[in-house]
Design goal:
218 residues, alpha/beta, six-stranded parallel sheet, 6 strands, 50% helix
Length: 218
Amino acid sequence: MSAPEPIRVLVVDDAVPVRRNFLALVESDPAMTAVGEAGTGAEAVRLARERRPDVVLMDVRMPCMDGIEATALICGDEPGVRVLILTTFDLDAYVYAALRAGASGFLLKDTPPSDLLAAIRVVAGGDALLAPAVTRRLIAEFVARPGRSPRARSLDGVTGREREVLALIASGLSNAEIAARLHVTVATVKTHVSRLLGKLGCRDRTQLVIAAYQANLV
């Protein structure tokens, strides 16, 4: 059996020392490979289109084009590319815009290296990740902020069991925890999650959490 393809990572940060540190960290993991580096949002968009990484580690504050605009362009053009925002500030106001732009989550830049590598794996696997200490209040404030859609999220076509799963996702439960709560298998939960993603037009788990808040399930 052949080894799985390494996770392809694009590192974006306008500070060269920071960028090089992240590149070295990515290359230290045999399951990952760095496919490029960028110092501006515009350069990040160009490289994402050319090299199609699995995950983009995206800084927010950069010259020419910031990480929010770059995230929106990348997520709009390349649905298979996941963006993980790296920010210096806890609950940075830019994070809300990043979620709207399609980011799969965010972490603080001082996150321990092992946790950052784990986050890349999570996001590359199609899941979503937010800094654990702020997940619920981040999403709750996100949906309450001006600029969100004034219409409540419609759950037309979503079954009763899928609504239960969606509410539990928004409560921060993992697939295994949801399976235990509902007395079903993890595989069954994964099927429900996959169907919810399709029915609600969501990219990942983060957007499912937002959808649950917008539908007043939480």
